[in-house]
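#struct-pred

JT: dropping the chains for the assembly here, can someone run the whole complex?
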Amino acid sequence: MASARKLTRPAGREATGRFLAEGPQAVREALQRALTTVPGSVYEFFGTEGALARYADLPAMAAAAGVRVTVVSQQAAAALSETVTPQGIVAVCSRLDVGLPAVLAQPPALVVVLAEIRDPGNAGTVLRTADAVGAGAVVFAGDSVDPYNGKCVRASAGSLFHLPVVCGMAVSAAIAALRDAGLQILAADSAGLAELEELSAAGRLARPTAWVFGNEAHGLPESVAGSADERVAIAMPGNAESLNLAAAAAICLYASSRARLQAADRTERGRQC
Amino acid sequence: MASARKLTRPAGREATGRFLAEGPQAVREALQRALTTVPGSVYEFFGTEGALARYADLPAMAAAAGVRVTVVSQQAAAALSETVTPQGIVAVCSRLDVGLPAVLAQPPALVVVLAEIRDPGNAGTVLRTADAVGAGAVVFAGDSVDPYNGKCVRASAGSLFHLPVVCGMAVSAAIAALRDAGLQILAADSAGLAELEELSAAGRLARPTAWVFGNEAHGLPESVAGSADERVAIAMPGNAESLNLAAAAAICLYASSRARLQAADRTERGRQC
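RK: done, full complex below.
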């Protein structure tokens, strides 16, 4: 329990290669991973009596995966939580990030690069959106927030367990590797000259793409935005100066996903003719 | 100072009709409002020495608006903050919500209805997105979070001051009034049969529209979703069960905004021929 509590801090996660998955959704995904693809990837499971009764499938999954279940007080569960409303259920998991070369062995059609993203809620929300649109990986590049931060894990709503996550690369190195793998680099940049809908209308979004999103306050540094194939702005007829980062990412990633689906539809119709 | 601190709680805001705008962006918008459209709408302005020096335009604006500036300690500023990283600058403002009939006197082409949204960060982010795409109002309906909650104000990044906000209506009453005003009602519903892109391709999104978004955990109740003209799903080829509410709203609102811009373009081209 004391060793698990250390995982609420970056140093504790760094030293052990472990992190905490909190809440029924994340714990279910973690146990699913332990039961299927990565045996032994959940070390321990803590739950309050109430939470274990409410989510009775979880202790059953833990038993099937050979994971010890420890009943804890609400106070103890809260001490393992990094969120304001603890859900009384926490699993200790092994890190799951992979190297970018492994991801690029079979280059995905859509990758997300987070460049110096600081807010864990934003990062987790982008991870969830990337998962929803079928992206092949999310790269937490440069000095971005730790994907294993409790708030990020929670905001990802289980998606952290669904698609490859890459950590610890410089933004420029990640971009170079993605370009080498044949992906176009699109930088989300409110000062960009290319407009999202124009790229979409020109058929550019159906190509294999890495979207790069910058810091919440400062956006992308010139060195990064300037190295992209396009600096892409989202048309905003209203008064807001900018969009929230996760909202902007949702619009861009959905546009790419839609373009790919439409291109696939056309190919399909072409075959039928 | 003590009376300002009470505004961090719903009861204090309710009793006084005042709320706290925190951070340079929100305070600037509040002072702008006091200087232009609503004289007297900022009652007091608190700042730490450091923050007042960093954002020197703000005490100048306050002076021009006849608002008293009080220098406070970092601790006192933090006590007025509902966020984890206080920015040392807070204004006491008058509520600014309006009645829906006033909004509908000239029906806007795009309105957002938040139905039982509980997370202030989500609500503020949707407000910011609605502002960015040029929506005409945001209705905080049913038991939704208070738009004057500090986290919501901060997440709106100033947008709370840009477009009309409506509070305190039942969801069904808001929908009925919006429909009477000629707006189609589109309910965001992951179980919906209409797909966003199909509506877009059919030209349906260019019509005057009220988008209704439901609770983060439970979505929209059947009574609300069933009363909409369409229940609209967002195609998700990936693995996530659902999108974050603010991400889904960004995709839907951007799609409507794009459809209106394209329809306006076509009308313009029609005139030129």
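JT: nice. The CA atoms of residues 26 and 158 of chain A lie 5 Å apart. The mean pLDDT of chain A is 94.
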